[in-house]
Amino acid sequence: MSNPSISKLERAALVLATFLRDDEVFIVGGASAVPLAAALVAQEFHAPDLVLLTGSGAVNPKPEALPLSGGSGELVNTAEALIDIDDIFDFTEVGKIDTICLGGIQVDRFGNFNLTAIGSYEAPRLRGPGMANVGLTMTASRLCLFVPHPSARSLVPRVDYPTGYGSRRPDGESVDQRSGGGPEFLLTPDALFEFTGPNGEAVLVATSEQVSVADVASRTSWDVSPESVDTFPAIDAEQLAYLRSLDATGLLA
Amino acid sequence: MRAGRRSKLTAIDDAVSVVESGMHLAVGGIWNENTPSALVRALARRGPNNLKLSAGPASAYPVDLLIGLGLVDTVLAPNVTFEDLGLAPNHRRAIEAGEVSIVECDEPSLIGGYRAAAAGLPGSIVKSLQGTSLLDRSPWIEPTTLPSGDEVLIVPALRPDVTFLHVQQCDEYGNARCLGTIFADRLLAKCAGTVVISADEIISNEEVRADPSRTTIPGFLVDVVVEAPLGAHPCGSHGRYERDTQGLLSYLAAANAGGDWQGYVDSAVSVSHDEYLQMTDPELHRE
After folding, report:
1. What are phi and psi of A230, to 5 degrees?
2. Quick check: A156 pLDDT over 60?
3. Could you tell me where the DSSP H helices lie in A46-84?
4. Where are the domains of chain B?
5. Which of A58, A76, A85 has its CB closest to that of B57?
6. In whole angstroms, what is the distance from residue A228 CA to residue A121 CA?
7. CB–CB contacts below 8 A, A to B
């Protein structure tokens, strides 16, 4: 039975959790409350052997409350091990980090994402955080894209700058020299896209029960006209209660 | 006559004199945790400029502050963000206006550069970045073919002249204990010419020896030790104090367009660390 009061970010966390599996190494970065929450739900319910790694080097943290920052002491103090930057370097190169969840100021229909510059690269209207860990987008088996606030400005036809490449580059060319799997899906609180179009474009495969395909289309700048579309997996009340027990301050509310 | 060891303890305003204009300075910590904030403010009071500034792979307050004060010529920092609190305003504005140069890098390229310097090698081999857009903007990273025939990238060594770090505990000889995640800080100590470390608390060498497994950076890598209680503030210090979210929001309000930047500089940067401490939330001083 669905809880009508579930928030958009809570909904997204529960859907993202369903994609996380036992024995994969999943890394979450900064400002990543939703991916972190998804991992904790997955570990509690269906993937107890999922390995959660934070961008600060905490392995399998068990925070009592979702922290505001990816560097928070709450993640460090509750971890079972701490790894360092040399480990992250090695794991990036060798491909030992299986799964990464990234967002972007812009994401396009191929799953190219932009954390670097809006407008021209040389004289940007907005400079973003930078290049993050581009190497990881090439070596991770699974690249998950998450956009918390979908709109025609964030889900764009073509990113202004491709910090990381999607299924194809913005110009439609193939992405060479990638040892990992590339983008597997793009999730928003409303919609799930997979990159299964004829040229690797995003195809809408599922929506939240709270929205219509037309709603999703109105917040997406590329053509959204699926042949068929599923509904998100039903909300599990026990999982939602657990998620909320981690979120007393309402980061996801 | 027997000899005694040399104490590296130095007053904060003297410690930062190792940084001269035009040098490459690296700052440790991760996002807004374990940051050498007090050292950076002391450096700003001294005012060397045209710095080449780099950081760990994720950074925020120290990088944004030094850029905002106009002391930075070139920046290498692949992920500058206040995360849930927003983008880094000075960093963002300076790049948009073309006031600082960027050496574009990501995590493997930055770390590869530091690793090479730590080992005294001219560069590191990196492969993960092959075929990425980063290479279009990073002429400093060079493709090459090894004698084996392998096609690789070479990231040249990045050797900071000076690294600033903050830890929770340290003895007077520089044996440092990070009580949280060391992350890039030991590497930043190994790769730099001179290492200045601030500590929330100075502990005795006997206390260090009682549990050497807790020493995360050995003293022989450290040149200068500074006692700086709350030295990471407004950022957090793992195991000691959480970030001061209100303090960071005050900083961001001042740094954002239309904010009272000069007011922040006058009240928080131009004052001594002791005066700064008197303005912080007394709750933070509680052990």
Report:
1. -90, 170
2. yes
3. 73-77
4. 12-88+159-278, 107-156
5. A85
6. 38
7. 180
Q: Which chain B positions have a beta carbon within 8 Å of A125's beta carbon?
A: 96
Contacts A135 to B, Cβ<8 Å = 106-109, 126, 128-129, 132
Residue of B nearest to A114 (CA): B133
Q: Which residues of B touch A58 (CB under 8 A)?
A: 181
Task: Give the separation between CA A182 and CA A223, rounded to whole angstroms.
Answer: 22
Written as six digits, the tokens of B2 are 């027997």
Structure tokens at B71: 């002391």
Query: How far from B261 is each of B40, B89, B266, CA to CA, in Å?
Result: 17, 11, 9
CA contacts within 13 A on the Cβ side of A27: 27
- pTM for this prediction: 0.95
* pLDDT, averaged across chain A: 95
Is A234 exposed, middle or buried (CB count within 10 Å of its CB: 0-12, 13-18, 19+)?
A: exposed
* pLDDT higher than 90, residue A157: yes
Q: What is the pLDDT of residue A225?
A: 87
Best interface-test mutation with A: which of B32, B37, B83 has the largest number of A CBs within 10 A? Answer: B83
A176 contacts on B by Cβ (under 8 Å): 131
List beta partners, residue A126: A118
- Torsion from C-alpha of B160, B33, B31, B44, nearest 10 degrees: -50
- As given in the structure block, the two tokens for residue B79 are 């992920």
**Closest CA–CA distance from residue A81 to any residue of chain B (Å):** 10
Rounded distance between C-alpha atoms, residue A227 and residue A73, angstroms: 47
**Where are the extended beta strands (E) located within B107-221?**
123-126, 142-145, 151-156, 162-170, 176-177, 194-202
Does the complex come out with an ipTM higher than 0.90?
A: yes
DSSP character at residue B221 = G
Average pLDDT over residues B241-249: 95
Quick one: pLDDT at residue B287?
A: 53
**Coil vs helix vs strand at B137:** helix
The CATH classification number of B12-88+159-278 equals 3.40.1080.10
Q: Which residue has the tokens 């971890």?
A: A79
Percentage helix, strand, coil for chain A under 3-state DSSP, each rounded to 5:
25, 20, 55
Please state, in angstroms and rounded to a whole number, the distance separating the CA atoms of residues A15 and A144: 12
Look at B32 and A71 and tell me if their CB atoms are within 8 Å.
Answer: yes
Q: Is the pLDDT of residue B281 over 70?
A: yes
B122 burial level (CB within 10 Å; 0-12, 13-18, 19+) = exposed
- Given a contact cutoff of 8 angstroms between Cβ atoms, the answer to whether A71 and B31 are in contact is yes
What are the structural domains, with CATH classification, of chain A? 8-245 (3.40.1080.10)
Q: In terms of CA atoms, which chain B residue is nearest residue A34?
A: B84
The pLDDT of residue B286: 62
